[in-house]
């Protein structure tokens, strides 16, 4: 009777981008979740609490939530909360991280940074066009040829 809360915490919680929460009672692989939700990656939510400084204003603890992208071979563990993120959002985040890294490394070379931004934006556009092409090419279209009937009398 007193273990009702323990049953609730012993679940894998998957948060979908639309706000829906999926609760599983057994561990599953990340690849299984990705197959069930094409176009999405699985990430682990990591919450940390830091003591805030005078910059936050109210002086209370500051709660930070970070995400860690999981590999398809990783297993989703009971008691953790996971979030599905679209692959497009993941690519945007990785590109932003790459741009900030380049900005730190070379403060004077703005041309290089602009070039990387331009290349990355065209990559996203090309991915969208490729998805559209594959969606269109998947539709089946019959190829009918006329057959001449040979009549012998």
TrEMBL record:
Query: What segment(s) does the record annotate as region Disordered?
Result: 105-153
The UniProt regions of compositional bias labelled Basic and acidic residues, in chain numbering, are 105-115, 124-135
**From start to end residue, where is composition biased (Polar residues)?**
137-153
Tell me the protein's name.
Answer: D-ribose-binding periplasmic protein
> Which parts of the chain span the membrane according to its record?
none
Q: Which gene encodes it?
A: MPF21.10
